[in-house]
Amino acid sequence: MTKNEAKIKAKELVSKMTVEEKMTQLLYTSPAIERLGISAYNWWNEGAHGVARSGTATVFPHTIAMAATFDSELIEEIADVISTEGRIKYNKHVEYGDHDIFKGITYWAPNINIFRDPRWGRGQETFGEDPYLTATLGTSFIKGIQGDGEFYKGTACSKHFAVHSGPEKDRHGFDAIASLHDMYETYLPAFEKTVKAGVAGVMGAYNRTNGEPCCAHSYLMGEVLRKNWGFDGYFVSDCGALQDIYEFHKFVETRAEAAAVALKNSCDLNCGQTYDALVDAYEEDLITEEQITEAAERLYMIRFLLGEFEEVRPFSDIPYSKLDCKEHRELNLRASENCITLLKNDSYLPLCKNTDKRIAIVGPNAMSITALEGNYNGYASEYITVADGMRRVFTNADISVEKGTNYCLEKENDWGGFGNLISDGVAAAAEADIAILALGLDCSIEGEDTGYDNDYTACGDKKSVYLPKTQQKLAELVCDVCDNVIVVIMCGSSVDLGKKVRSHAKAIIHGWYPGSQGGLAIAKTISGDNNPCGKLPVTIYDGEHPLPDFIDYNMKGKTYRFIEGDALYPFGYGLSYTRFEYTDAKILEKTDDNIKVSVDVKNFGDRAGIEKTQIYAQYTDSRTYTPHFQLCGIKSVNLEAGETKNVTIDIDTYWLKAVLEDGERVTPDGKITLHIGGHQPDKVSNKLLGYECEKIEL
Length: 698
Hints:
Radius of gyration: 25 Å
Structural class: alpha/beta
Number of helices: 21
Helix content: 25-40%
Shape: globular
């Protein structure tokens, strides 16, 4: 079914509804209209890294971990499995008359907000801090969810439009102030690219941007999204965001006025209950029936494109046995392996997996399932923690496990026990030949509006990029008693271990929130069965690095593109157990819209590896400030030991433009240099990886 055919069918069906019936269909809990053969439908479902909150499903690495793969083809493959499993569940939900929340196939993912500040708790849900990486991987995710057939397999939704990245504590009344320059250079590109790639839905944010609520924003929604970009899909409010319009933003005085201003600015669907007041708004002549009809037609276009009203629903023949099946678990493990990012290795890893040495696994993430899941997760049929994975891989080793400490709050043991176990953790490490410190966070510490406010977290946002003090204490004491320490960090953001631990550790692995198979992927990386290839989708800062005010949305001083000073571990960085060499970079084709670049990549190590080739543009413009570097191309390359491949990458010249004060993208009036290699061309990356990127002057 084409989109035009779906629009015609939607228009015909909606024309048969009364105005009252049409209004009810603009709530996420859309009730049945039996006289028209319409079943109830709940629009709210989540699928950021697996079908969430509705029973068993494959739990893939969280979005920030997927970003560390720098692999758009892998992301599309993952999303295709997510929508397959979503269809399996939906088919059975329909069969058994279950139309509850999280039972539909309209997924409110991906989160394509820019992870502008390492303290933001929801950064784990994003593809990182770079607009190009976010746009590229977000587009691949959307393609995987929606498919390319006659009907959508599921629908994706780009969120949260548009300038949104904390603070969590104040998000319901916060006003994010952003210049047009920063909006068009940083905050809007991923939305523009995913909209033009055909995403079915866009979700608005809780906060205001430059004074207007994001779910009723005349400029962002009306001028930019609908008019300039030509978006004809559905727009949904974040959950409860329309209530914020009158209750916290004080933008209007009543529920009816909030419902009216959102609808008039083309918010089609309300996640929440404020659109209950559409009746009042209509009776008070704040809205017209035509506006109600237009929103309903857009929503029913989506439902027709999903095949809801077909006599034989599309994708209804997928067997239930495909849910979290062997093939999906194998893909999940491969994804986990690809996201593992090796930050340090003093020629210590990999360890021989036949070792009979005593290994102590110490830390709050040693046996944690929540650190495998991240947030917005489903429930896997099998979880492999770090301790589980080590036991599976290192079968001859003498392995002991101690939690060592809580994630965050330290206290003496109380009658309930398990309050403070640092001495036990240190004791295990002291008697071990090798200590693996399994440190990090989970969604109770960094996450969405958690409600907890203590010395480390403010409702899910971190107050520091250091580890929590109790984990820092454990880590330093373990380093005092054991020479051979491997640190495994599992979290969704930038964390500094502190100078003592960084210096003492023989190796440091960032495992992110790696999915249900994550512990096995980490163990296989430690043993060398997996050669790590992940790259940092965020900058890791030294804990003493002066960060700008968290509530300041000006991009100066933020992310690798505008950082002041040096990173601890830069965006785009990650080690391998082999070495790669780049030669003979050249331009093959050049048009106004696209540049095709070629480079030879050689694996000159003694083992196979996957290299994540990256291209960065460096340019200047006398009319505006520009990034230090801008990622503009990526390619995942598999190479056997000693093998050379010629790699070609297309560069969209959109990413080579300077952005003026008014938001216009223009060809820079200074020179443009392309840097091609396995890392960002900054001096820290050059030093850590031991080589400089190839250069091409345009």
